[in-house]
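Q: What changes when uracil is included in the input?
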Amino acid sequence: MDDRSLRELELLAVARLYGLDARSRSDGDVPVASAPSGAPVEAGASRGAAVPARADRPAVRDRSPGEVAVPAPAPACAPEVAGIGTMDWNALKAVVRDCNRCGLCKQRKQAVFGVGHESAPWLFVGEGPGADEDEKGEPFVGQAGKLLDGMLAAAKLQRGREVYIANVVKCRPPGNRVPSPEESAACAPFLDRQVDLIGPKLIVALGRTAAIRLTGQEVSLASLRGRVHAYRGIPLIVTYHPAYLLRNLPDKSKAWEDLLFARRTMAAAGT
Ligand code: URA
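A: The predicted holo structure follows.
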C-alpha cells in the first residue's frame, strides 16, 4: 500500500468518529474523490466579480445533476470601498464593523468578520452569519459550526491553526434567508481583501451561495463538486454547506470525499 492510501485510511478512521465514513454506502468503496489530484484548474470568477442573481440557502434543495445549468447572470454592482486594496487587517476589520453598505446592517447585532490564522493555507467560505454567529461575532459557532469543526478535525485541520473561516456576507440576513445579490455584491470587496491578506493555498466554498459567488457560475452545487476551480488565482473546491448536511445526512460522505479531494489538491500544490 502506498503512502497516499495509508494516509487516506488513517483519515478514514478519524472520519468514522464524526460519522463521515462513506463505507456505509452499499458499494463499500473507500471515499475517494473522483477527480485526480492533478485535475485541471478552471477559470473562475475574476477579481471583484460576480454575484449571482439568486443563491439557494442550504435548506433549499440542490438541482439534481441532470438539470440544465443556467449561465451566471451579469454581476450585481456595488460601489468600490475606497482604499480597500491597501487596507491591513485592523483597517479592514474597522470598516467591516461599521459597514452600512447594504440593509443587513439595520438588524445585525454585530458584523461577523471571520476567524482563524491570518496566513492560513486553508480558507473556508460560508454564506452568512446565523443567529448564534450574530450573537457571538464569530462564524460557524452554532450546530453547523460544530459539524464543520468535526469535519475539519477529521481532516486533521483546526480553525485558528491552519484554517481561516469567513462568509460571503458579514451580517446576518434576517430570518436566515439567502443574501440577495446586492447584499453579496456589497460585501464582495471585504471577502476579496480577506483573500488577498490571507493568501490561502486553497479555498473551500461551503454551500451554493459561496460556490456561486466564488465560481461566478449559477449552477447546481453538485455540478461544481469534484473539480478544481480558481478564485483570484487560488485553487477552489466546492462542497456542501454543513447546515445542509445536518438535514441530509447521507451527503456527509460526499462532503468527506470533497475534503479528501481538497487535501490531495493541497498536497499536489506542495503544501
Ligand atoms: N452558516 C454560514 O454560512 N456561516 C456561518 O457563519 C454560520 C452558519
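Observations recorded in class: Residues 201 and 215 are 16 Å apart (CA to CA).
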